[in-house]
Amino acid sequence: MKLQHLLLAGTAASILVLSASFQTAAMAADSAPAADAADAEGLGTILVTAQKREENLQVTPISMSVMRSDDLVNRHVTSLVDLGDGAIPSLKIAPFYSRNSALIVNIRGIGVLSDGNQPARDQGVGVYIDGVYLGRAQGLGTALFDIQNIEVLKGPQGTLFGRNTEGGAVNIVTKKPSGEFHMNATGGIGNFGSYKGEMHLDLPTLANIAVKVDGVVAHRDPLVKNPLAGAEGFNQYDKRGLHVEALWKPSTDFSADYSFDISKDESTSLYLNLIAPGTNRQALLGTVQPDRVRTANVGVPEQPSVGNVHGHRLTLEWDAAPDLTFKSISSYRKLQQSQWDNGSASTSMSNASGNFTNAAFARYSLAQFWQNQWSQEFQAIGEVSRVKYVAGALYYQEKVRDNAQAFNTNMFTDAAGSAYVLRQIDYNAQPIDRASHVTTKSVGFFGQATWTPALLDDNIHLTGGLRWTRDSKHGELTMVNNALPINRNGVSGAIPLDASWSRVDPMVNLAIDLTPDVHVYGKWSTGYKSGGANSRSQEYDAFNPETVSIFEVGAKTEFFDHHARFNVAAYAGSYKNIQVDFSRPYETGGVRTTRTTTSTINAPGTGGLHGIEAELTVNPLEGLTLAASYSYQYVRIPATANPYPNAAGVLSAIAVPIYQTYTPRHSASGSIDYELPMDGFTLRAHLDGNYDSGFYANATDPVYAGPGAATNVYQPIGDKAFIANGRISVADIGLGQGDAKLSLALWARNLFNEQHLFYKSLSPTSGLSGFFNEPRTFGGEINMRF
What we know:
mainly beta; Maltoporin, Chain A; 22-stranded antiparallel beta barrel; 5-stranded mixed β-sheet; globular; disordered N terminus
């Protein structure tokens, strides 16, 4: 689809959506899908920091969505993984395979194509908290602290945010110390033995220092029980976190903001269902499970994956002049994450012979991950005459290491596979399957300026930006398949990685204020995901960065006296040097074996991407806000031939299709919020529904012999999904003590208990397997604030 077709489709879509909204009192979603209940004065202003300064969302010429604190409460969001239901259609968040301890984050279909759960490989969407980049997928599942906004910036953000933002950025902004005495405490319980507690305490200013303390505790029992006595179940969690922030303001033009946070996240893996058998013969206990189950078919050893994270941040701001602010952001973070997964036993109970006597099954994957990072960013934010500008520099360094081992924990005792025992295994004595370490360094300089010429009543704004970045990665692959690596020269020993890349990312944006409430823009921007190496490979070959270049046009509008807001964007662009994974046989002594490793290459040719995003919010009546948003996103990746020989030494000449993973073609979300003031309290109700058309979880087909070949076995796509969430509360009950208020609420996620396979994987021999979405969860909460 060409760009002009996209624009016409976007215009037609906007007319249809507007028409439908007027006829039905509108369902809408602005960038905040569940905005605060609007009053008679309209929808109010949403402030964002996407361009390193606080601005009105409606005049910021960027396609972005915002989830505010009330939106997170209404959807009962505990961590980022809870946004995986599609609350923001362009954003897809999902566990890495079965692990809630490491998250995949994609925007517009760009971010993660294959395995990013390793030290020398990055994701393509940057996640930031209060200006600090979080370098790893691990640790993103920890509980969120007191959030003001989650800003989702769509499309390449290479100029202002830098490396690893080719898909976009998730910018999380927390609430700052107020300097006044306030407390906001919440406690609640729910099904599956869940409970949650939050406490946010603001202390009064003392010696020009304001302090804020946040504490979070959340627990849920397993969604699938484990028959093995003493073992943990599947998909359970315990999350605990503490955050302390001190804001020192000795004068009106200087502030020092220090923040410390510490979190512990314990979660178990998801349970993998066998949906349909393959050509292998199944053990008697290897039952097909085409629906959600409450109890696994066999008991296996299982323990929580434990993540410990802590971090420090110091932000200094100095207003050196009325139109010039200098800002420094210093940070240090440390992460240790174990990843234990034995949730796939039900899919491993088959073989070709049908004789299961002494056959081992239930592969237990045990992996350790360590990371520490520190960064320093300087910014100068100012205005000169008709030019607003921001300039800065960033230094980032991280050290990462990992290892992994895997073995079967169970064994059948009869030919039919109807009985089993646990194998007697000394876990500590098991060999390490793979291990690696890497140090990454990145240096960047950036600048962006917006010029408003003295034309057309100052309604034209031209922005240009540029960023230069240099990345380097130095490390070693120290273990492959329980042995020292063997390089191409046949020498056994650690294989080094020593690679660096430089990159320039430009951006140009032309914005026009057609009226005070109608703003249009055209933007061209680029971004990239850093190069690296695959720690699951044999030779640890470096691969280059992949890049995205996008042209985007959009409109941000308000009407009905600020009681309706409609934003739309259409984009098209190119996708190059895409990092694609291929399996290859493990070689030892020059002989290829049946064991496999995974290597990464940059796909030849140029891919493409295009899409449309539309968001609408309407406040037709006082206290009522209706919302809807929609995203169409398409990513094309060039077909690519596996460059590695198979076990027989034969090279494939066939270019295989590559699927963009974790990318629904169509996504939509809608919500209704209603607030009714009563005598002494307020009734509040929220309902949202979220749809996606399904997505691929793996990038290549299980078997592909060529276009139209009868022997092709194609990759299955995940099921279509519709998830509804709801909340109703009796709020703001006066307690007769100052401004103290009490609120009582009932909530539900997946209100209608909808069932779908969001992840599907197909093997011709083992069959079709997959992960189901979570069943309905519900509970009640009590909140007190003063």
